Give the backbone structure.
Amino acid sequence: MRRLLLIAATLLVPLSAQASTVKSALPGAELRGVATFRYVGFPLYEARLFTQSGAPLDWNKDFGLELKYMRNLTEYDLVEGTMRELKPTGAALPLRGQLEQCFDDVRKGDRYFAVSKGQDQIGFWHNGKRVCTLSHPQIKTRFMAIFLGENTRSKSFTRKLKGE
């Protein structure tokens, strides 16, 4: 029985740590939507959108986006993928250096949590630890549009993520 409790506690710690990250980084936020992004049929990550009180997404208010990775990816993969996905959102952005500071290799089960702070900043947490702030004019719209914008790779993914 003692061993069973220890196993249960070990499994629940990451969930409680992530819940506390959401509460401290974005007070009053609740889960709005969940979607799994697949590439060539393989699941890459599960995304979770957090908005104030679980309300529909409002680009004028701060919100959070969590990605739970379902496979191992390198920092290079994350930075290059992000740079590639930013292209359809507008002119090229000089963010590579900032992204390299924010991102690290991920393993299956790792989580990144991004929280907007106004229109020009996004704070990042990796597995519950604050790692960086991405700063650039209108970065919230540009970066978050990769997942939540009108021209995402997968309309059904975006609809599910938005809770529609």
